[in-house]
Structures are given as C-alpha cells and as structure tokens.
Amino acid sequence: MQTLAREHCVACRRDAPRVTEAEVAELHPAVAEWELVSPDGIDRLRRVFAFDDFAQALAFTNAIGELAEAEGHHPALLTEWGRTTVTWWTHKIKGLHRNDFVMAAKTDELYARVHDGTTEEGTMADDHEHDDDHEHRHRGTFAEGQAEEEPHPEDHTRGDFARGQELADEQEHRHEGDFGEGQEETERHPEDEPKGDFAKGQERE
C-alpha cells in the first residue's frame, strides 16, 4: 500500500487499457480491504469507512474530495451517519485503471492518519488554537503591563510639576519680600540723609 500511496495518477485517455486479471491479482493485495464489485458490469473498488458520528464522516469525505482534486481523479462518495462509502473506478474506460488502486491506497493512508490524529487539518487546527491562546495571553499581559506602567510616569510628572510650582512660588514670594525691603531701605536712606544735611547747613547759615 505504501508504494502505491506514493504514486500519482497519470492522465488517462478513452483508449487506455483496463487492468488485466493478472494486474488485479498483483495490485489488490496492497488494498485488500477494498471490495471488488461490478455494478452494471463495470468493475470498481469499494470500501466503507466507519466513524463515531456524522461530523467525522463528513470531515473524511471532504478530505477525500481535496485529495481527488489534487490528483485529478474523482470517486463516488456516500456520506452517512457514522460512515463514508468510497468507490473508485475510471469513467473514461468504464472499468479499473492502475490510478484507481493508487487512489484506494491513498484513501487508506488518509483514513489511518485520521485515526492517528495526524491529519494536516487536525494539526492546523491545533496550531491555530495555540496561536489564538498565545495571542490572548499576550494581549492580557500587555494590558496588565499597560495598567501598571501608564499611571506612574504621569503621576510622577504631575507630582514633580506640582512640587516645582510650589518651590517656584515660594522663591518668588521670597524674592518679592527681599526686593520690597530693599526698596524701602534704598528709597528711605538716601533721601533722608541729604535732607538732614541740608537742614543742618541751613541752620548754620
């Protein structure tokens, strides 16, 4: 199965030969769980895959659809509660081609990955949840950090500014007080002294 699963579908023309009985005997053991059926006289490979519920069956159906699109070869799919029926055959030649065995092997491999929990879809979902959780944690940490960091610079600035204003006002009051006293001394003494000397001189004359 692993060898077939590693192969890819080849372009198939209407005149391409169907697999012979000998080739079927060689290829079928690699996909032994697939039933060889011939409705309407057309040979096909069919297998029923079991699941726990409809959602799992639908997810598997969608995964097979993506695989079929990638390989350019499409099966008949029947999705029911708890199971998906997959049927491979080549429409152009109305029978089985090697491509059908290749796709049956790839389908088995996909089903095995689903049960092991290693599908790309599951991995991507886990990664997405991890990224979202990391983003939420980052946002929470950032918000807490903002709450702690933002108030302090502003409070310190306001406090320092207020204290600076108080000091400036105090210095200004002191300066005005010193200046007032100096004015009184400067204005009083020079004027009084000349008047006193002049009066004394007048009395002498």
SSE topology sketch:
Elements: H1 2-5, H2 21-27, E1 35-37, E2 44-50, H3 54-71, E3 76-80, E4 83-88, H4 98-116, H5 120-149, H6 151-204
Antiparallel strand pairs: 1-2, 2-4, 3-4
Helix pairs in contact: 3-4
Plain-language structure description:
There is one protein chain. The chain is an alpha+beta fold and 205 residues long. The protein has a domain at 2-118: 2-Layer Sandwich (Gyrase A, domain 2). The protein is 64% helix and 10% strand. It contains 6 helices and 4 strands. It has a 4-stranded antiparallel sheet with strand order 1-2-4-3, covered by helices on one side. A hairpin with a 2-residue loop joins strand 3 and strand 4 (83-88).
Give the rounded overall mean pLDDT. Answer: 74
Helices and strands, in N-to-C order? HHEEHEEHHH
CATH topology annotation of the domain at 2-118: Gyrase A, domain 2
Structural class label = alpha+beta
Radius of gyration: 48 Å
User: How far apart, in Å, are the first and last alpha carbons?
Assistant: 144 Å
Helicity level: 55-70%
Which CATH class of the domain at 2-118 is shown?
Alpha Beta
Task: Identify the overall geometry.
Answer: elongated
Q: What are the low-pLDDT stretches, counting only 5+ consecutive residues below 50?
A: 121-132, 134-139, 141-158, 179-205
CATH homologous superfamily designation of the domain at 2-118: Transcriptional coactivator/pterin dehydratase
Q: Count the helices. How many?
A: 6
The CATH architecture designation of the domain at 2-118 is 2-Layer Sandwich
Oligomer: single chain
Strand numbers in spatial order across the main sheet: 1-2-4-3
User: How many strands in all?
Assistant: 4
